[in-house]
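User: Continuing from earlier, I have the next pair ready.

Assistant: Great, send them over.

User: Here they are, in order.

Assistant: Folding the first of the pair now:
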Amino acid sequence: MALGGAVRLTIGHTHAVSERLSETAAGAPRAARAGKLRYGWTTGACAQAAAAAALEALLGGAFPDPVTIELPRGRRPSFPLAERAQGEGWARAGVIKDAGDDPDVTHGALIVATVRWRERGAAPEGAGGGAPRGGGRSAAAAAASGAKLGTVFRAGPGVGTVTLPGLPVAVGEPAINPSPRRMIRAELARVAGRHGLACDSELGPPVVVEISVPGGEELAKRTWNPRLGIVGGISILGTTGVVVPYSCSAWIASVRQAVDVATRQGIDHLAAATGDASARAAARRHRLPELAVIDMGDFVRPTLRHVSRRRPRRLTLAGGFAKFSKLAAGALDLHSQRSQVDLRFLAELARERGARPGLVDAIERANSALEVLERCLAEGVPVATAVAERALAVARAEVDPRVELDVLVVDRAGAIVGEAVASSR
C-alpha cells in the first residue's frame, strides 16, 4: 500500500491487551471464547522469548525448546524455537510471530535475538558506541564484571532506528519500545537468577541483546514507521505481550505517537482524517506535509483529546460524508458497530437548508448516506456544508479552545463538498 496522505496502518503493527486469553503449550493463543477471533503475541513477547532462550543457551549450553516466559500480567506462554545458533560468547534464537486472527503486518515474521556478554566499560544505553568487544565469558565472569552494567539493546537487520523526537525512545536508539525492553530485561534477570547470576531485574544481566527481523525493512514500508522517522525496519512493540484481533488500542496509540512526532518537529497545523481520500483532500487544501496528516480512523474522541494536550495552532478534521454525518449528530466514535447514520437527522439538516418536502421525504427513505449526498448535490442543497458546521460544533466542544479548528467533508472521489471554519477562542 502506498503511503499517500494517511494510511490505515499502525506504527510497526498492532498490539493490545486482553483479559480473556487462554494459552497453548506451543505458544499460540487459542480463541478466548468459542466463536471468537484467535488472539496472538506481540513482537515484544516474541523478542522476550527469543532473548530468554539465547541467554539460557549462553549460560547453560542448551536451548530450551519450547521456551516459557512470564508476561507482565502473569501469563506464562511457551514458544517453539524456529532458529538457534551458538558460538564463542554469544547465542542466537528465533521465534515465529503468531498474531492470531489480527491483520498484523508482522504475522509470520521471524523475531531473532542475539545475546552477547557485555564488557565492563561498554558504552551505556543511548550513548552510542559500536558492537561490544570480547569473546566468551562464564556467568561468574559476567557477575564479576558488575551486574549494574545491565542489558543494552541493539537494532539488527530489519529493526528500525529512531531518527525523530516525539517517540517513547530517544533519537538514535533501536525502535524497541519501553515495555518490551522492561519485559526482556526482567525475563533475562529470571534466567540469570536460575544460574546463580544475581542482577537487578530492571537493569537485566550485563549482556547486549540485538533484535533482528529478516525482511523487516520491507514490512516497515507497510507501517507508519517511515513517516515517523523510524528507519531500517519495524518497531518492537507491545505493552502486555498479547495481540487482540482488530484492537482499538493499537490504532489510538499510533494516532497519539503521530501527533507527538509532528508537534515535536514544529508542525503547528495538523490534519486528522478518517481515510485516504479525506487525508489527501486535507493535504491539498492546506498544503500540508505528509508528517502533518494523521489517520485517526474512527477514533475522533481520543484524537481530539491528544491534540488538545499537544495544542498545535490549528487542526483540520477531514472525513467522508457518511462518517462526518455521524460526528455532526454527536458521535465521537465513528465505527459502524458503535454509531449509525441517522437519516432523519440528515433530512432535518436538508430541510433547514431549503430542501423541498419531496426531497426531505426521499432522504428519510434513502438507502445510504451516499444517496443522500447525491440527491442534495443534484438539487443544490448544501447538506454537506450543514454536516461540516454541525461536526465543527461537536468537535469544538472537545478541543482546547486555543486550537483553531476547521472541518472538511469529502465525497468518495476525495472532492471537498462541505467545509466549516472556526477560529480559536
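And the other member of the pair:
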Amino acid sequence: MSMTLVALLGVLCLFLLILLKMPISFAMFMVGFFGMLYMTSPIAAYNVISSGIWEQLSGYSLSVIPLFIFMGELLFRSGITEKIFAAAYAWIGHFRGSMATTTILSSAGFAAVSGSNTATAATVGTIALPEMKKFGYNRALSAGSVAAGGTLGVIIPPSSVLIVIALQAELAIRDLFLASIVPGLILVVLFIATIGLLCRRRPDMGPAGVRSSWSTRWRSLKGVIEIGALFTLVLGGLFAGWFTSTEAAAVGCIGAMVITLIQGKLSGAVLNEAIANALKSSAMILMLVAGAVIFGRFLTITRLPYMVGEWAAALPLPAIMVMACILLIYVIGGALMDAMGFLIISIPIFFPVALALGYDPIWFGVVVCIVTSMGAITPPVGVNAFIVKSLDAELRMGETFRGVGYFIPPYLLCIALLLVLPQIVLFVL
C-alpha cells in the first residue's frame, strides 16, 4: 500500500472516530500510533511516544498555557464580566443598539481573559441576554450579538488557540499575539457597525436606553482600570521585549492575584476553584498537543503534507484562489467541531501548503484562527449558537441562527480584507 493511501486512510479513520464521539486527542493518538506501527516498526512507534511526547510536553514554552488560563480564572472570579458590561453600558447605553454593542465590547474584554469561544459566549450571555430582554431588544439580534461576540475569545490575545498554533507551527507566540490585535479590533468595529446599521434601519430592534450621568460613567470605570493596566503591562511588556511569553503569563498571574485580593474576592475557596479549573482546561489542551505530536509524526512519515503542498503550488490557479479553497475547508471544519481541535488536526496538512504558495506563516496562523472561529456561529453546528440557545428557554433555534446570520457578512469582509491586504496583519511585526 502506498504512503499516500495510508495517509488518506489515516485521516479518514480520524474523522470517523471523531464522528463516533471519541475525544479528538485520543483519536489523533490512536490513528497516529497505529499508522506508525504499520509504516515503521513497533520500536520506532514506541520511541515517538516516549521521546516525542516528553520532548514536547516538557518544553519551557508550554508553561504559558496553564499560566494564562489561571490568570483568566482569577480575573473571572473578580467579577470582571459584570464590571466591563456595566462600564460599557454607562458610556454608550443611550444609543440605539447600545446593549448589543455593549455585548460585543464586553465580549472583546472578556476574550482577553478567557481565550475561549464557548466560555466568552456563555459568560457574557448570562448577563447580556436578560438585560437585552428587559430593554425590549429583538431576540435574534440579542442572540446573534452574544454568539458572534463569543467568537472573539480565540482571536484577541492572550488566546490559548494562538498559543497552540504557535507551538505546532513553530512560530513565536509574541508575533502571533501582536499580529492578531488589529484583525481582532477590525472585527469588533465591523460587528458594531453591523448593529448600528440594523438598528438604524429598524429602530425597534435595539431601543435606546437611559443616558447615564458623568459621575456614573466615571464610577463605572472602577475595577476596570486595574484590569486594563494589567493587560497593558502583560501584553505591552511582551511586545516591548521586557518579558518572554512565559514570563508575561507569570506577571499576569501575580497581577490577577493582587487585583482579586484588593477587590476582596480572593479566598481559599476561590483560589482552589481557579486552580482546579485551570488544571482541567490545561490538561485538555496538553492532551490535544500530545495527540497532535503523534498524528503529526505519522503524517510526516507518509509525506502527505509535503505532497499536498507541492500539488497545490503546481495548480494552474492564482495562489489566492487556492488559499480561498483552504479557508473554506476551515469554515466547514470550524462549524463541525471545536476550533482548537480542528486547527490541531489541519495545521500539519495545510501549513506546508501555505508556505509553498508563498504566504507568510504568521499571516496564515492569524487568518485560519479567524476563519475557524467564524465556524463557531456557522450552521449546521455552530457551537456558540447552541450555547446561546441553551441560555434562554424562550429563544428558538431559528431565531438564533437568523441572529448569527447578521454577523456572517462582517466576518467575510474582514477575511477578504486580510486576503487582499495581508499588511493589516504583518505591518506591526
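Worth noting for the second one:
The mean pLDDT is 82. The two ends are 45 Å apart (CA to CA).
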